[in-house]
Write a structure and sequence with these properties.
Layout (H helix, E strand, L loop, with lengths): L2 H11 L2 H29 L3 H7 L5 H9 L4 E4 L1 H10 L5 E3 L14 H5 L5 E4 L9 H10 L3 E7 L2 E8 L6 E3 L5 E5 L18 E6 L5 E18 L14 E8 L2 E10 L5 E4 L2 E4 L3 E20 L5 E4 L1 E7 L6
Parallel strand pairs: 1-2, 1-3
Antiparallel strand pairs: 3-5, 4-5, 6-16, 7-9, 8-15, 9-14, 9-16, 10-11, 10-14, 12-13
């Protein structure tokens, strides 16, 4: 930035004969910059430029194929997602499944795709992708998700997802749940408000036996609980325990449904008929039981940490799925 000013200052203070040497040099540099800038601008305006820089393949055939399938919502890696959105003139809404460049940051348009029941994953191997096909298929196997795969050129299109438990899952309405805790009552309502910025915290540091209890309006067949943790980028949540027990109230007695379940943030959830990446949560599945209430109880605490949660969800089996 300061180089032109230094040249100008020097030009004013050198002997006249040296000005004849510096002057033509400066003019040459200026002409070079002008001509090269014009050439670069002309090159940047060429349609293949973006694909060349990003090292991505042509996607016009992919867009045509997806349109014929009636698909207008999809996930794709960074370069592919923005090109699909741009080159389809907005007819197809595509986004990264998670922010590949800044992990944890929001992703434009992702919420629209998360809510779409027919969303597809459009992936490729190579092309500077941080989310290749091999990683995706490994995640699907890890979470027990089945899919159908179709090849379109160098791309693999994944859809028709199935998950045995999630396919028969229905969210228990928040109005049907009453919460209490032996670790502090203040702020418990925040666990049911669906606000990603609100949270509940225990009064004291974690101890074995701390619990959050969810009483139901009527006996329901419950088969999962999902714990949400507050996440304000870039601070990763630290208020979780090392493990919890899950207890259910059956005919007036609390019985153990899951014992000493270790904490682990889930990479993804199965929502609206497809995998959804992101968020700081943990879903714990268990054998369906008709219960009146559910407890999440700290088994192994996280030393010197308060217990901090952002939300609690209960999932019940849909009618007819429980014998």
């Amino acid at each position: 930035m300061s180089f032109p000013f230094l040249v100008g200052y020097g030009f004013q203070h050198v002997r006249p004969i040296l000005k004849y040497v510096i002057g033509p040099g400066v003019v040459s540099v200026v002409l070079f910059n002008v001509l090269s800038s014009a050439h670069l601008i002309k090159w940047w305006l060429q349609p293949p430029f973006a694909a060349h820089v990003a090292a991505t393949p042509r996607i016009d055939g992919l867009i045509q194929e997806l349109k014929q399938m009636g698909i207008d919502r999809c996930y794709a890696s960074y370069w592919h997602a923005y090109r699909i959105l741009f080159e389809s003139n907005g007819d197809m809404v595509c986004a990264q499944p998670y922010n590949e460049r800044f992990l944890g940051w929001p992703v434009p348009n992702k919420a629209l795709i998360d809510e779409a029941p027919d969303a597809r994953f459009v992936l490729a191997t190579g092309y500077d992708s941080r989310f290749p096909v091999q990683a995706f298929t490994r995640h699907m196997q890890e979470y027990g998700i089945r899919y159908k795969k179709m090849g379109v050129g160098v791309f693999s299109v994944f859809g028709d997802f199935e998950h045995d438990q999630a396919d028969n899952d229905s969210l228990v309405p928040r109005s049907a749940i009453t919460l209490r805790s032996n670790a502090g009552e203040e702020g418990l309502e925040n666990l049911l408000d669906a606000d990603s910025l609100s949270f509940w915290s225990s009064v004291d540091q974690q101890q074995p036996g701390f619990l959050v209890e969810a009483m139901l309006d009527q006996p329901r067949v419950i088969h999962r609980v999902t714990l949400h943790f507050p996440f304000i980028y870039p601070e990763k949540p630290k208020g979780h325990s090392h493990s919890v027990d899950i207890q259910g109230l059956v005919e007036g007695n609390w019985i153990t449904l899951v014992d000493d379940h270790p904490h682990r943030f889930d990479r993804l959830r199965f929502l609206n008929g497809h995998p959804v990446y992101g968020g700081m949560n943990q879903t714990i599945w268990f054998s369906p039981r008709r219960i009146q209430g559910l407890r999440v109880v700290i088994n192994r605490p996280n030393p010197k940490r308060k217990w901090v949660l952002n939300g609690v969800e209960l999932g019940e089996q849909r009618s007819g799925a429980f014998p």
